[in-house]
Each structure stands twice: as C-alpha cells, then as structure tokens.
Amino acid sequence: MSPSPIRGNQVVPLAKANMPDLILLDVMLPEMSGFEICKVLKSDPSTKSIPSFFFTARSMPAEIQKALDLGALGYLAKPFVPMMLVGQII
C-alpha cells in the first residue's frame, strides 16, 4: 500500500514540526493551493527562511511570477529534465 499524498492544509504544520531544508510545492493541491502555502510559510517568522520551490504542471507566466513574488526560490513546469531541478536548487 502506498502512503497517502499530503494535503495542502498539512504542509504548514509539517514544516513547523520538521523544519525541512526545502519544500517542493505544486500549485494545485487539495484543500490549500501551493500559492496559499507559500504565502503562509513566508509570512511566519518560524518558517520564512525555509526555501520553497514550485514543481507543477501549471506554466502560465502570471503563475510563475506569482510564485516568485510570494518568495519562492524557483519554479519548474512538468515535464522537466531532472538535472534542471537540481541546477535550480543548488
């Protein structure tokens, strides 16, 4: 049995509890969008320094700009070349 996917509203509490080195977000998540998550994370002093990166099928320029304006480290649209993700994170 595969694990259940994380729902959008679970990300912020998990980030606060675990303080990850990086958070990969999708724009389209159930219950809370990646944009909403990024906004909450960046507005909270305890999580604002956690880098967030969007990895999503959505690739409209306005969506990319919105993610960057919210404080995301970067944005990659699917499908992608795996080394592009590594190159943008490092």
Give the topology, please.
Blueprint: H1 8-18, E1 23-25, H2 34-43, E2 52-56, H3 61-69, E3 74-77, H4 82-89
Parallel strand pairs: 1-2, 2-3
Assembly type of the chains comes to: single chain
Mean pLDDT: 89
> Helicity range of the residues?
40-55%
The strand line-up of the biggest sheet is 1-2-3
Explained architecture:
By secondary structure, the protein is α/β, with parallel strands linked by helices. It is 42% helix and 13% strand. It contains four helices and three strands; from the N terminus they run αβαβαβα. The protein has helices at residues 8-18, 34-43, 61-69, 82-89; strands at 23-25, 52-56, 74-77. A three-stranded parallel sheet has the order 1-2-3, sandwiched between helices. Helix 2 links the parallel strand 1 (23-25) and strand 2. Helix 1 runs parallel beside helix 2. The chain is globular, with a radius of gyration of 13 Å. It starts with 7 loop residues before the first helix and ends with a helix.
Keywords summarizing the entry:
single chain, 90 residues, alpha/beta, 4 helices, 13% strand
Short synopsis of the structure:
By secondary structure, the chain is of the alpha/beta class. Helices cover 42% and strands 13% of the residues.
